[in-house]
Design brief:
single chain, 447 residues, Aspartate Aminotransferase, domain 1, Aspartate Aminotransferase, domain 2, four-stranded mixed β-sheet, four-stranded parallel β-sheet, 42% helix, binds pyridoxal-5'-phosphate, PyrdxlP-dep_Trfase
Amino acid sequence: MQTQAYRQLDRDHHLHPFTDFKALAEEGSRIVTHAEGVYIHDSEGHRILDAMAGLWCVNLGYGREELVEAATAQLRELPYYNNFFKSTHPPAVKLAEALCRLAPAHMNRVFFTGSGSEANDTVLRMVRRFWALEGKPDKQWIIARENAYHGSTVAGLSLGGMAPMHGQGGPLVPKITHVRQPYWFGEGRPAGQDPGTFGRECAAALEAKILELGEENVAAFIAEPVQGAGGAIIPPESYWPAVKEVLARYDILLVMDEVICGFGRLGEWFGSMHYDLAPDLMPIAKGLSSGYLPIGGVLVGDRVAETLIERGGEFFHGFTYSGHPVCAAVALKNLELMQAEGVVERVRNDIGPYLAERWATLAEHPLVGEVRSLGLIGALELVDPDTGGRFDKSLGAGTLCRDICFELGLVMRSVGDTMIISPPLVISRAEIDELVSLARQALDDTE
Ligand code: PLP
């Protein structure tokens, strides 16, 4: 079928996620047809370097035959069975064991879901159930962060702190509130504060919120180690140690959303490990299967697990596709390949530092106000070269730069005027050179 025919069918019948439907109908879609390694290809013959690993998920890159074989073999063996009540199957059990082996030592249980959003719905249910079972039913408030993304289900969007989503979300889940994000650049590099002071101030804002709500009413704090969709926000070094201290002062659960940072993105199996954190719960998804099939879950620490198991009775929660056998088989193979190929160590010791060095060269560009990266996640903050400050929002500099990138053969994401990369973890040095060179050209063309 020809490109134009696909575009017309798309216009006529397909509502895309996070898309202005009308604008898309006017402009038409790019039809992505196939992919290999770190490149996607479209129906018009373009080869595009995917510096977003799809949606932060294709960690092992495209075209891995081993994952195709794992799916095919499992489809033949047992294409579907559920994990409700007293049934299970080998892929779910083996994946659960593998995950708990890779997770921090105090995390020995996993609850499977079909996605990251469902994982965060599960978090909400588990956290409140835990405190009810502990005889503290008032502990219901969950503190999240402004500008956070935790998914698109009602619980996910309520935990998230994105104002435009809240505006469209209908009634949100009660007793969820948001505190300041540790976004030094985005908060305008507050005058007279170095990043360290700013990081501690953000942790102090969390403490102030706990005291305002009353610690006896606060159930949990949820955050990503590095905030992804909000703008690849790497917190100042002072932030997590200070938050850890605050949470230790009050009996409040820590939920680390590892949907993006998990599975090697920051050079450790989980982002929490990079920051030496010991979360009570870790929602996971995306890189778990390198995005080849949809699967998510919540890793559960011993404290919460023991209460739910010993005192909980039936947990009235679960999904038809919780621990789907084919998705679980692919996820298991994905973890095996990552281990066999030393993917996480390579991000930490080799390709992450290489990206940091090459990416930092973009700081010299007049359009760039800040460059940051950690492991294989990175961002550029676009600024008006005349003032050194943010562009006028109405100019849409980020969107323009993103579109130019696409035309040049590079997928970079824009969040406002923040340009983001999160490439497949298997990206080579030569491909990073290409990525940086295309990004530089896109900046030149945006000017
Ligand atoms: N949590 C975080 C941090 C995410 O980035 C996302 C998706 O981007 C989600 C949760 C939701 O995951 P899903 O899209 O699989 O529902």
